[in-house]
Amino acid sequence: MRELILNKVYNIMKKTGKNFLKLILKIDEKITFEKYKREREKRKKIGSKYKNVEKKVVLEKIKVQELQKIVENQRAQIKNCKSNNEKLKYKLKIVENELKEEKEKNESIIEGMGNNGEN
Prior knowledge:
By secondary structure, the chain is mostly helical. The protein has 2 helices and no strands. The protein has helices at residues 2-16, 20-118.
């Protein structure tokens, strides 16, 4: 594209007879500057996209860390519940054993009363 523009300018300046070399250099300079400007804008856009992606990644990492904390808390609660469950099972066995002992005592007392009544 640059060459086409330069060729057209060259042909026009050749026909008019003016100092075309200076004009060509100015146009070439402008074209180069515009090209540089576009490339710089592209780099800025890419940089801003990269920064946005970085921000999203950081936010996702924070979310993951929060979720990991929640999971750890839930695991701790589950362990706590399991240990409480084991404690309650142990207490239940103790109470059942005490109940059996009381029942056996009561039955032996009832049998003893029945035997005394027969005697």
